[in-house]
Amino acid sequence: MPQPRQMHLGVFVLGTGNHIAGWRWPGAAQSFEDLSVVQEIARIAERGKFDLIFLGDNLSTDPGMHPSFAARFEPITMLAALAATTTHVGLGATASTTYNEPYTVARQFASLDHLSGGRAAWNAVTSSGEKAALNYGREHPRHDARYEIAEEFVDVVRGLWDCWDDGAVVRDHATGRYIDPAKVKPLDHEGRFFRVKGPLPTSRCPQGQPIVLQAGSSEPGLNLAARTADVVFTVVQDLGEAQAGYQALKSRMARFGRHPDEIAVLPGVMPVLGSTTAEAREKLNRLQGFVNPGNALVMLSSRLGQDVSHYPLDALVPEDLPLPDTSHGFAGAMLAKAWRERMTWRDLFNLAGAARGHWVVAGTPEEVADTLQQWFESRACDGFNILPAWFPGAFEEFVDQVVPLLQRRGLYRRDYRGNMLRDHLGLPRPRSRLF
Ligand SMILES: Cc1cc2nc3c(=O)[nH]c(=O)nc-3n(C[C@H](O)[C@H](O)[C@H](O)COP(=O)(O)O)c2cc1C
């Protein structure tokens, strides 16, 4: 019997909380450089039967920004540590296609997939911030060029993952043959940006291939996602906008011979819970009261790809502000909301301070569950990337108060049905295309 459609849930892990001032909440974790903090978050995610935990990354830092952007572990290293203390939850991390070699990235995520027994996911990002270039001694390519590189990069990574066929490691004691060489091939890739021979020194992954995540919303970003992604994170502020974006991405997949169910679309949402609606709003106001104007402005300028500190805070956000060369997704969603709701710079700065441009929903557990259900059932998404304002408390509240409601309504799994991330996402294990 076909299973009823159910949500997928991810959690965006930032040790000090997704809210820019979440660490100031009483009892909140104080650091993103503390393994016990992320281990606790991963335990809560498994208690909530989450599909995956997600660790973002940037290749430069600014002490004036979000505390968990300013001081953090390198995410793949951190996931390797978490692989040892978790059993089911998917482990997703960002690695840039602009400032890496595909051979390195393919190898890292293949290793993580083996280490975790099939739970690795790679968030392929083009790195929007040009400050990364200063740390790699290179020029920062323009937006379009970054995506041209990314298209080839993802193909090379996937090609490298296909160099080993299943059953290549035979360990035949009688003949003394350890590996069947007929089941290991080079990639022999010669492209515009990369020349990679292969194979990797890593046998075929437990998942066949690790999961590929993506989060770009520009035209080339959507093409890359429609062609290659398994999970897509989106930035949305409005139900209609989310439905249109969802439909646009799913229909674009046909161009690449893919079925719409092969991608799970997960918008980011920060739930703020209270025992009454008023209490939830009060909590959000209290959090917003902790925001320091300096770092919220740095965050807003980064999201909009330009310094906006010279605008008077009470002036309306002008309607002719161009989309930046950095991230179309964040700037597009935030500016559309600002224009729709005639927001001032102060309002937009509050939005950036809360969830860095993501959607915030404050209410009782029932109200939040109702909203998530409405978005899911009206095909605005296939689930959510949850952004707890602080850790671990706000995440525990979601897992203990909202997840049971979703389970009771049949919208969410009561238990894992397999051990691998592909099992949670309902995606089949791919065969190697080289054999
Ligand atoms: C949930 C989410 C997580 C993201 N994580 C990262 C990240 O860790 N590192 C990064 O450089 N960009 C990250 N991004 C940015 C995008 O992946 C993308 O590179 C950027 O938005 C530019 O693409 P676009 O112009 O196509 O939107 C994230 C975006 C979203 C929505």
From TrEMBL:
SUPFAM superfamilies: Bacterial luciferase-like. Its EC number is 1.-.-.-. It comes from the Bacteria. The keyword Flavoprotein applies. It is an enzyme of class 1 (oxidoreductase). Pfam families: Bac_luciferase (PF00296). GO terms for molecular function: oxidoreductase activity. Residues 25-378 form the Luciferase-like domain. InterPro entries: Diverse_substr_monoxygenases (IPR051260), Luciferase-like_dom (IPR011251), Luciferase-like_sf (IPR036661), NTA_MOA (IPR016215). Keywords: Flavoprotein, FMN, Monooxygenase, Oxidoreductase. Belongs to the NtaA/SnaA/DszA monooxygenase family. This is LLM class flavin-dependent oxidoreductase. It comes from Paracraurococcus lichenis.
